[in-house]
Amino acid sequence: MTPKSAVTRENARLAVGQLADYRRFVDHSARANLLPSQPRRVLLDLAQSQESVAIWPEGKSYNSTEPNLIP
User: Fold this and answer.
1) pLDDT in 10s for each residue of the chain, 71 residues
2) Does the CA dihedral 30-31-35-41 come out positive or negative?
3) Is residue 62 within 8 Å of 55, Cβ to Cβ?
4) Which of 23, 38, 33 is nearest to 53 (CA)?
5) Residue 47 class from Cβ within 10 Å (0-12 exposed, 13-18 middle, 19+ buried)?
6) Which domain of life is it from (predicted)?
7) For residue 36, which of 18, 55, 19 has the smallest C-alpha distance?
8) With the C-alpha atoms ordered 59, 7, 19, 46, is the resulting torsion angle positive or negative?
9) Is the CA virtual torsion 11, 9, 56, 44 positive or negative?
10) Quick one: DSSP state of residue 29?
11) Which of 5, 2, 3, 11 is nearest to 46 (CA)?
């Protein structure tokens, strides 16, 4: 998981690139980006197009593009 400090296109692209780089070295069942708030739809679509999950805080819990990953 790669945490980012702001939900910007630049950070979203950096996170997708980092995960693509890491996947060469680490066994994984899922790739995820931890974001400080819910991103815009276009950034959610970017993450999903790269088979990556976006996770963000929502109240006292979290939400994600893959709700089954959040307990």
Assistant:
1) 555 577 888 888 888 889 889 888 988 778 888 888 999 999 999 988 988 889 999 999 999 988 777 76
2) negative
3) yes
4) 33
5) buried
6) Bacteria
7) 55
8) positive
9) negative
10) S
11) 11
